[in-house]
Specification:
This protein is mainly α. It has two helices and no strands. The radius of gyration is 20 Å and the shape is elongated. The termini are far apart.
Length: 108
């Protein structure tokens, strides 16, 4: 770094992505998972996680609307977590459909 120029934040203090309190969706399949039944169970587990995030966001928003003591940032974090889960699931669904269509277009 040129002399006389100091960074605003030390490199070690930068936050890790995706941000505090927001867990990245876990859509990776482990190496030992193989076969249709394992794939179906992994997909079902991820759908259940998405559903849990959405229902948690609905609960927090309902409490906020009812006037209960809910921090606004908690409501926003919960909504963002649910949004990221839904968007990730939509992209996985789109890739699955695209892959299925590619297989169906193959000529034997």
């Amino acid at each position: 770094m040129p002399s006389g120029i100091e960074p605003l934040l030390p490199v070690n203090s930068l936050p890790d992505l995706p941000g505090p309190g927001i867990a990245a969706p876990q859509w990776q399949m482990s190496a030992e998972v193989s076969g249709p039944s394992q794939f179906a169970s992994v997909l079902a587990g991820n759908v259940a996680d998405m559903n849990a995030h959405v229902s948690a966001a609905e609960t927090v928003l309902g409490d906020l609307a009812a006037g209960k003591a809910v921090e606004p940032q908690e409501a926003m974090i919960s909504m963002e977590r649910a949004r990221i889960s839904v968007l990730t699931f939509i992209q996985v669904r789109n890739k699955l459909i695209e892959s299925y269509q590619d297989v169906m277009r193959m000529q034997l």
